[in-house]
Design a protein that fits this description.
Helix content: 25-40%
Largest sheet: 5 strands, antiparallel
Order of helices and strands: EHHEHHEEHHEHHHEHEHEEHEEEEEEEE
Distance between the termini: 48 Å
Structural class: alpha+beta
Radius of gyration: 24 Å
Number of helices: 12
Strand content: 5-15%
CATH class of the largest domain: Mainly Alpha
Bound molecules: 1-deoxynojirimycin
Shape: globular
Length: 544
């Protein structure tokens, strides 16, 4: 649960669906990365969410809008005071947090827990998103009613993950599949040619430069997505131009930024026009800028180059005024000097967070624009989570891909649509005890795919498992052509998986010029049997 105190000494504490989901996404990722002590609180979170979905509240009931109620009392009763509601990012973020844990369960032989306990909760949240993404909402700062970039971005991600998670557990989510491309289409409307406008379909008189957009980019970062601009990936030209426009808007308005010119880290807040507590820097916002930059650095290193377009040129010129558009390969002096200057820039934002955090480590919501003293909600859970996710990105520790590469093609025509999905009360909330990966040898799976190739071309299998390269076309498993003949152009490779693991995969081909060709069609699904030490073959034909 996420506590939030309006003021030190004030005992008003609430649980926000958004803050809780973002925090539990971090906790689930930390659990998957090795901290197994976290599983009990993950289960507590899930049980609490199953209940909260059923609590009637001022936004509605389970199937009538209640899932987008922004916050609840800590005893899991509805908060009935006036508030900026509904906030339609909550169900999407919660689905994403639960799917992360669900994928862990599937990969560890606990598919019945994923199906019986997690899926009913996730399915309700997905139904909410597919049915309401096109409706106006209060933004994540709970102030503006309109369309919010952060909300649209996380809704797209949730529907994409929802579709593949459903397939993995033998369910389907037709509304995820039909709505996700339209949500992506709508997401493009926030770009104004220079930066991402945080809130549209409203008239609040603000510039639109807002931490909303940085948070949208980092919470939809996908290590497999390259620098794709359709989803505003952190290293995309649009997201970098946006970062500059956003950060620069705070340089002259906060006293503590005095002397911090363009290209130097600065304290940043929600949006420059903010008047809450007179408008101040926020820890969440300052850490988020660092995180976007760390994400970008990771991706450039992985891709092996930095590409500068006319859109991102001004961002890069802050670090090297003479730089021009083009692609700079790692190893080149331009790549080295830019990446090292941007690393210093990113670290500068973390240093600001550190500088204004008291020695006892308590992180509040804001720090004073002139004195740097902490302000507003103290020990704000989301502030800690934001610092930790930025720290993970700095350490190159990233969560699994959400499937961006399979969901980044923008429809030629945007349609304002929706899909009526099912809602049902989640009833299974008791986790079985003692469920763990069967203690036996892994199963071998032989992938066989037929595809005619020419000399110099190679076939790879890639998918959403670390052993399958997490969808990266630089980390797929190379297949061998030992049994390839012209009449039977067979490529194959044999791998081992734990019993009960379910995953998605696809084939791609590397061409003689080094480019990559994906096979067509949706992601393929494979479920490893529950039995121990089995050997199975999967025979596929390349989808042209
Ligand atoms: C106010 C913030 O604007 C909002 O985003 C957040 O959910 C709540 N505080 C709780 O942290």
């Amino acid at each position: 649960m996420t506590n939030y105190n309006e003021d030190k000494g004030n005992t008003d504490c609430f649980s926000w669906t958004r803050d809780s989901a973002l925090t539990f996404k971090l906790i689930v990722d930390s659990f998957i990365a090795g901290d197994k002590s976290l599983e009990p609180i993950i289960k507590n979170y899930i049980v609490a969410q199953a209940n909260l979905q059923t609590v009637s509240n001022p936004s509605g009931g389970l199937s009538t809008g209640g899932l987008a109620e922004p916050k609840f009392n800590l005893d899991e009763t509805a908060f009935t005071g006036s508030w900026g509601r509904p906030q339609r990012d909550g169900p999407a973020l919660r689905a994403t947090a639960l799917i992360a844990y669900g994928r862990y369960l599937l990969a560890n032989g606990q598919s019945s827990v994923a199906s019986n306990i997690l899926w009913p909760i996730i399915s309700n949240d997905l139904s909410y998103v597919m049915g309401n993404w096109n409706q106006t909402t209060f933004d994540l700062w709970e102030e503006v009613k309109g369309s919010s970039f952060f909300t649209t971005a996380v809704q797209h991600r949730a529907l994409v993950e929802g579709a593949s998670f459903a397939t993995l557990i033998g369910q389907s989510c037709p509304g995820c599949t039909s709505q996700a491309p339209q949500v992506l289409c709508f997401l493009q409307s926030y770009w104004n040619g220079n930066y991402i406008v945080a809130n549209i379909n409203q008239n609040n008189g603000r510039s639109g430069k807002d931490s909303n957009t940085i948070l949208g980019s980092i919470h939809t970062f996908d290590t497999a997505a390259g620098c794709d601009a359709s989803t505003f990936q952190p290293c995309s030209d649009k997201a970098l131009a946006n970062l500059k426009a956003y950060v620069d808007s705070f340089r002259s308005i906060y006293g503590i930024n005095s002397g911090r010119g363009e290209g130097q880290a600065a304290a940043v807040g929600r949006y420059p026009e903010d008047v809450y507590y007179n408008g101040n820097p926020w820890y969440i916002s300052t850490a988020a800028v660092a995180e976007q930059l760390y994400d970008a650095l990771y991706q450039w290193n992985k891709i092996g180059s930095i590409t500068i377009t006319p859109i991102s040129l001004a961002f890069f010129q802050d670090f090297q005024p003479s730089v021009t558009t083009g692609t700079y390969k790692s190893g080149s002096s331009t790549y080295s000097s830019l990446s090292s200057a941007i690393k210093t820039y990113a670290d500068g934002f973390m240093t600001i967070v550190q500088q204004y955090t008291p020695a006892n480590g308590s992180i509040s919501e804001q720090f004073d624009r002139n004195t740097g003293a902490q302000l507003s909600a103290y020990d704000l859970t989301w502030s800690f989570a934001a610092f930790l996710t930025a720290g993970n990105a700095r350490a190159n520790t990233f969560p699994a891909s959400w499937g961006e590469p399979s969901a980044n093609s923008i429809p030629s025509q945007c349609i304002a649509t929706s899909f009526a999905g099912p809602y049902a009360t989640p009833t299974a909330t008791v986790f079985p005890t003692g469920t763990s990966t069967p203690n036996c040898s892994p199963n071998t799976v032989t992938f066989d795919v037929t595809k005619s190739t020419v000399y110099g071309e190679n076939l790879y299998v890639v998918g959403n498992q670390s052993s399958l390269g997490e969808w990266s076309t630089t980390a797929g498993v190379k297949m061998d052509a030992n049994r390839y003949t012209s009449s039977n152009p067979q490529w194959e490779t044999t791998m081992t998986f734990a019993p009960g693991v379910a995953f998605e995969y696809k084939y791609y081909k590397t061409n003689t010029d080094g480019s990559v060709t994906w096979e067509n069609g949706g992601n393929r699904v494979f479920k490893v049997g529950q039995q121990c030490a089995g050997a199975v073959s999967q025979t596929d034909a390349w989808q042209s």
